[in-house]
Specification:
By secondary structure, the protein is an alpha/beta fold. The chain is about 35% helix and about 20% strand. The protein has helices spanning about 25-35, 65-70, 85-90, 105-120, 125-135, 160-165, 185-190, 205-215, 230, 235-250, and strands at about 1-5, 10, 20, 40, 75-80, 100, 140-145, 145-150, 150-155, 170, 195-200, 220-225. A hairpin with a 2-residue loop joins strand 8 and strand 9 (about 150-155). Residues about 250-255 have low confidence and may be disordered.
Length: about 260
């Protein structure tokens, strides 16, 4: 069974992996949701879903303990192109297969869930059905979503966060900018967004930041809210879509 990761690297899974290390919190959650949690041998310090996992921790996403991973003798390690660092991946590939992911939109997430099901011989259809059931659209609204405050940085159009919100009818006012452009708050508010989202990660936006924006803008400020609803992909995408539905369906009639 040949499966390609986001780099185009081919993996020949003669059998399903039996000892997996996940360096991506959202993938850890997705593996358990698929029923493949029994093969997960170690996780990161930031793997908080499912709660209270009694598994070895091998450091953070940016600073994993490569020697500890080596000692676990995994037959597959999961990483994410953006969340993890290439130098750690290069080191891990000297002793274990490395599968790298990078979903950019909801359709990519569906493909990822299907791929994980294929790799681990699990039925992905129930999760795909949940994901499809969570999709919806509302009348078009413009939005901005910051990810940092010192300096102010925003989600550009080629990010998962932007594409998640655009999938329900949003139009990112920074959609023509790549990655995470810096722009001070006054200039951003001058774009006159309908909505500003304030996730609490990677920067811990607070009610104080929300109040600062409300004083200078007529935008609807949503948040602070758990950032993993916007920044985590995989099965967490389902929860992100449900959060958006609960947020908008009360005030904006769905168009479909």
């Amino acid at each position: 069974m040949i499966v390609r990761d986001v780099r185009g690297v081919e993996h020949d899974f003669i059998r399903a992996p039996r000892r997996v290390v996940s360096l991506v919190p959202s993938l850890t959650e997705s593996l358990f949701a698929l029923g493949a949690g029994d093969v997960v041998a170690a996780i990161t310090d930031y793997c908080i879903f499912p709660p209270d996992l009694a598994l070895p921790r091998v450091g953070g996403t940016k600073n994993p303990d490569v020697d500890a991973i080596r000692a676990l003798e995994p037959d597959l390690v999961y990483m994410n192109l953006e969340e993890n660092l290439k130098r750690h991946g290069d080191a891990i590939e000297t002793f274990a297969p490395l599968f790298v992911t990078e979903p950019k939109n909801v359709d990519d997430v569906a493909s990822l869930i299907t791929t994980l099901g294929t790799i681990h011989h699990r039925d992905s259809r129930p999760l795909i059905n949940e994901l499809n059931a969570a999709r919806f659209t509302v009348p078009t609204f413009t939005f901005l979503c910051p990810i940092w405050k010192k300096p102010w940085m925003w989600c550009g159009g080629d990010t998962y966060v932007s594409n998640l919100v655009e999938s329900v009818g949003g139009r990112n006012l920074m959609r023509d900018r790549e990655r995470y452009p810096a722009m001070d708050l006054d200039c951003a508010l001058a774009l006159e967004p309908d909505v500003i989202f304030l996730p609490d990660e990677p920067f811990l936006f607070t009610e104080e930041a929300a109040a600062e924006i409300r004083q200078s803008s007529n935008a609807r400020v949503i948040g602070p809210f758990p950032g993993h609803l916007f920044t985590w992909h995989g099965t967490r995408t389902i929860e992100g879509l449900r959060f958006l539905a609960a947020t908008f369906r009360e005030s904006l009639p769905p168009s479909s």
